[in-house]
TrEMBL record:
Its cofactor is Mg(2+). InterPro entries: 6-PGluconate_DH-like_C_sf (IPR008927), 6PGD_dom2 (IPR013328), KARI (IPR013023), KARI_C (IPR000506), KARI_N (IPR013116), NAD(P)-bd_dom_sf (IPR036291). It comes from the Bacteria. Mg(2+) 1 binds at D229, E233. This is Acetohydroxy-acid isomeroreductase. Residues 221-363 form the KARI C-terminal knotted domain. Pathway: Amino-acid biosynthesis; L-valine biosynthesis; L-valine from pyruvate: step 2/4; Amino-acid biosynthesis; L-isoleucine biosynthesis; L-isoleucine from 2-oxobutanoate: step 2/4. PROSITE patterns: KARI_C, KARI_N. It comes from Dactylosporangium siamense. The keyword Membrane does not apply. GO terms for biological process: isoleucine biosynthetic process; L-valine biosynthetic process.
């Protein structure tokens, strides 16, 4: 479902390179409409208490206060999160905290926010607990991909919808709270209706999104969402950043830089001045603000990196599309209890991070042209690949640009890339650890030698970057972002 229609909420259209797309603006003034949109829903069960589970349960409870619609949290027996949920006011005594399957069985809208691997392993138990007429909600399409690859399906007699916030769970909660005082604060979401059993699924999905505080809601499908999301976290959102900055750091060290300078020219540059420039003024501004010598370096780095990056991202997409990447997550999750993942933060470059962060106040870093050209080649390659594979432009831009420069890169700037990789979801962590080294190898074995070789850059690639439709799409979508920085 890329198109959105509603009898209750306002629908607008935005003109994007692929054509007009409908969007639904949110806002607290719409909260009184939520009970009507959730017609037939007396209880919402949120399964899981990770960052998204906590944020969504709290936001929905606050938005529906006084409506008579109960929000309950469902956890597996013995969950270490039970005390945290109790501290936020969820209680077994009033039915707002309980066993995950019992909560699912008693709820009309069940929002499954447990990990991808856990949902893949235990979805049959969940399906058996759902009553006919229930609406099952997801915030990620992983389960849809898993079912399609294993020959499974959702049970008959239920609706299946998704609301997918374009930011981390902590930000979903913090910006919601800011929205009480700053109009438009919140995290934008995409929404999908995979199955509409009773004709009410669209309104319920939109009510869920608006209740989370989404300033704008975009349409997609669950098939499209899980592909773009899993590809994105393995590429420009996480995995590619990891591989790129590792390779850049090593290059600058070999050229004679001390560890702190090499870190500033690589990781600090991507997460700092490059990300800030893209966020404020768009990707083209990164190149345009360089002097002629810097533009020449940018062009050479961009032209050398674009095709190797595109080839790796295309391979990732094919692995996701075939189901291989999803199966690898499920298989890895089965062995993590006995063989946990080692952190990536042992690499030499990450030891330089604390010293660099400590001296930020005394330094105003300029954009490093080589780093900028290589990073924007990766970003543009992902944009081009997703657009080529038919994803809606709102999804392409949100997954490839806005989420990167407004959410993940600022978080990495505050803590570093290694911290992000070592502390993200299992699905994302596995993907970043698997594909980050592939991007590092592509840079060190293909892109950097091409940059150092003879001849001029392929100006057709640079011209394609300057004329890329993403600039037009981002100019349309950027004003729809929240008016506050996403908290990190």
């Amino acid at each position: 479902m890329a198109a959105l229609t509603s009898q209750l909420f306002p629908v607008q259209t935005v003109d994007l390179p692929g054509g007009a797309e409908p969007i639904v603006p949110g806002g607290r003034h719409l909260f009184p409409l939520l009970p009507a949109a959730l017609d037939g829903v007396r209880k919402i069960g949120v399964l899981g208490w990770g960052p998204q589970g906590r944020a969504q349960a709290l936001n929905l409870r606050d938005s529906l206060q006084g409506s008579g619609i109960q929000v309950a949290v469902g956890l597996r027996a013995g969950s270490a999160s039970a005390d945290a949920a109790r501290s936020e006011g969820f209680r077994t005594e009033d039915g707002t905290l309980g066993d995950w399957l019992a909560v699912a069985a008693s709820s009309d809208l069940v929002i499954a926010l447990v990990s991808d691997a856990a949902l893949a392993a235990h979805h049959q138990e969940l399906f058996a607990a759902l009553r006919p007429g229930t609406t099952l909600g997801l915030s990620h399409g992983f389960l849809v991909g898993h079912l399609s690859q294993t020959g499974g399906d959702f049970p008959a007699g239920i609706s299946v919808v998704a609301v997918c916030p374009k930011g981390m769970g902590d930000s979903v909660r913090r910006l919601y709270l800011q929205g009480a005082h700053i109009n438009g604060a919140g995290i934008n979401s995409s929404v999908a209706v995979h199955r509409d059993h009773d004709g009410r699924a669209v309104e319920r999905a939109l009510a869920w999104s608006i209740g989370l505080g989404s300033p704008y809601t975009f349409g997609t499908t669950l098939d499209s969402e899980y592909r773009s999301d899993i590809v994105g976290e393995r590429a420009v959102l996480l995995g590619a950043v990891h591989g790129l900055v590792e390779s850049l750091y090593q290059r600058f060290r070999l050229a004679g830089d001390d560890p702190q300078t090499a870190y500033e020219r690589s990781c600090e540059n991507v997460t700092g001045p490059i990300a800030r420039t893209i966020s404020a003024d768009g990707p083209a501004a990164v190149r345009d603000r360089l002097d002629p010598a810097g533009q020449d370096v940018f062009d050479r780095a961009y032209a050398a990196t674009y095709q190797p990056a595109f080839d790796v991202i295309a391979e990732i997409y094919d692995e996701v599309d075939s189901g291989n990447e999803l199966r690898s997550v499920v298989l890895a999750a089965q062995r993590l209890a006995s063989r946990p993942m080692a952190p990536i933060s042992g690499s030499p470059m990450w030891a330089a991070g604390p010293a660099v962060r400590a001296r930020r106040a005394e330094r105003d870093l300029a954009v490093e042209p080589f780093t900028a050209g290589a990073f924007l080649a990766v970003l543009t390659a992902q944009v081009d690949l997703l657009a080529e594979r038919g994803h809606p432009w709102s999804e392409v831009i949100n997954e490839s640009v806005i989420e990167a420069v407004d959410s993940l890169l600022p978080y990495m700037h505050a803590r570093d890339v290694a911290y992000m990789v070592d502390n993200c979801s299992v699905t994302a962590r596995l993907g970043a650890r698997k594909w980050g080294p592939r991007f590092q190898a592509a840079c060190e074995q293909l892109a950097f030698p091409a940059f150092d070789g003879p001849g001029d850059p392929d100006h057709r690639l640079v011209d394609a970057f300057r004329k890329n439709p993403m600039h037009e799409a981002l100019a349309t979508l950027a004003p729809l972002r929240p008016p506050v920085d996403i908290s990190v």
